Target: LacI family DNA-binding transcriptional regulator
Amino acid sequence: MKRKVTLKQIAKELDVSISTVSKSLRNSMEISEDTRQKVQAFAKLYNYKPNNIALSLKNKKTKTICIIIPEIIHHFFATVISGVEHVANENGYNVLVCLSDESFDKEVINMEMLANGSIDGFIMSLSKETQLKKDFHHITEVINQGMPVVMFDRITNEILCDKVIIDDSLAAFNATQYFIDKGFKKIALISTVDYVSVGKLRTEGYIKALKNSDLKVDENLILKIEDTENFEDSIANLLTNNEIDAVFAVNELFAVTAIKEAHKLGKKVPDDISVIGFTDGIISKYSSPSITTVSQNGVKMGGKAAKMLIERLEAEEEEEEQYRTEVIETELVERESTK
Amino acid sequence: MKRKVTLKQIAKELDVSISTVSKSLRNSMEISEDTRQKVQAFAKLYNYKPNNIALSLKNKKTKTICIIIPEIIHHFFATVISGVEHVANENGYNVLVCLSDESFDKEVINMEMLANGSIDGFIMSLSKETQLKKDFHHITEVINQGMPVVMFDRITNEILCDKVIIDDSLAAFNATQYFIDKGFKKIALISTVDYVSVGKLRTEGYIKALKNSDLKVDENLILKIEDTENFEDSIANLLTNNEIDAVFAVNELFAVTAIKEAHKLGKKVPDDISVIGFTDGIISKYSSPSITTVSQNGVKMGGKAAKMLIERLEAEEEEEEQYRTEVIETELVERESTK
DNA sequence: CTGAAAGCGCTTACAG
DNA sequence: CTGAAAGCGCTTACAG
Model:
């Protein structure tokens, strides 16, 4: 086992100073052609690579960014990571992935642990618990220390920073309008509880569309799901107890479950009930019938977030404090679950 | 904006030496109760946190491990990351995620870039291209430098290191046997090309099961898919040109596509054709009919891999060179696509 | 053209 | 009980 070779060792072997080796390897004009050649050849032979940690300490930057997400198993978040990765790599950055597991504490611990020099900046989507508590001190603190943060998807207006979002309300409005245009009157909504920012916004869009067309907003047709497990029964109830033409669900899981429950009740999708979901993931694509959905391009969101973060990192120190919010367009992908 | 406070600054403020501050914060008995109290109070007030990079340089370890995977969008790999994350976090490690995108070059670049002090060890699953080229020099090199590597899922026997796998051949054997026990004779296989290690092993298990029951191995019933796009037609052909009772697919995507194509051809699953997939992911669970599948617990595999890596990192330096290969059990999860 | 020195932020063996 | 010094691996302004 040959340990990593350092400048010091090379210097010793070649009987020159460490400075000379360092400068030679960086091709400094200060050093004679001759010495440079010699040092470079030797370094190559021993496969010298500078120690990243030493460089980080010296330069006060690590070329590493961290993305904190609630869950990696959600297809959407996986696509975001993918987008972040690619843009980061193109720019010579590495990506540290942290999972908050929807827990406030884990989010705080992760941020505090990494804010001490380990990384250059954060990209994050808030955990449910954080959104519920509305406690964002950990984020403010990091920003105050001069470390840039870019939020995406699950954001808060209480923090000033760069953000990447979709227009959740508008997307929901459009999906609902799509149903209205088809002549449906009994349009149900399956959403999350209101403290989840995107759930709330999507609910607003749905209501706005109904009102806009002078349709009655029937509270019985609005289901807000708290628990991510065992929500099948709630959905079955919704479908059983109401005459429903169409269902708009704020995520894939709710959409596919609505279809399954409808089938169990002997209702056909899309013949008896049309269904639109949210997030164009793997489920929407491969379920039978495949699901019409609001596509939310995670790769693009992640890429954009990474780009914004890196731009800020590489901007001339403390330039303007102009924070931007980028809105990624969504579109309705029509598949088999609507007609 | 208040910048991070350092030992130096605290020392200056309190008019003591840096050593005294450092020792006080580490609660060294060398320092008087009095001074310790004072320093600790001050540090707390200014929210001092030691700089991780400086510690890494000093300690020659970063408490960061890297996982290199071909693709994050595959549900299986996302679950592995999740498993790695949790075990790593419990042990105070962070996780850097790198994507090879199935490319040999990206795999090499990532490893070389990180092997210089940035991380303490690797967990990896080979890219397709690496498996095809059979060039593992980048991995050997890293191991020779004394950096531990744990391989999982897509591994190679040409590298000596810790490994976490499932018994792909046995799992495929069992799945095939399940069909045989039901009395099916015309059992098709949808696999990947042979250079993908797990595809090959699963194919072997399938063949073994057939031979074991004196069933003819019909090459026409074995489809090996190279391209991950546009394989629908190949599957449709397979189903059209042969009388098939059952299909064993080596991944979810092939399984769900087989079902879709069967339906298009007017064949019902499971009434006309039974289907078993591989990897118990989101597709298998939510497709209609839901898919009977060989479950391959990614969370467990990732957790195990992380555990092995961390144990090696924390073992008394160069202990025994005893490499272990852990086999994670699989099971057949019965759902609606078989009868 | 080459090298000694200082410094990034920390720890720790050693002196006093 | 406190502090100066050396060191982790590197870079760079400065001297010679």
The longest strand of chain A covers residues 64-69.
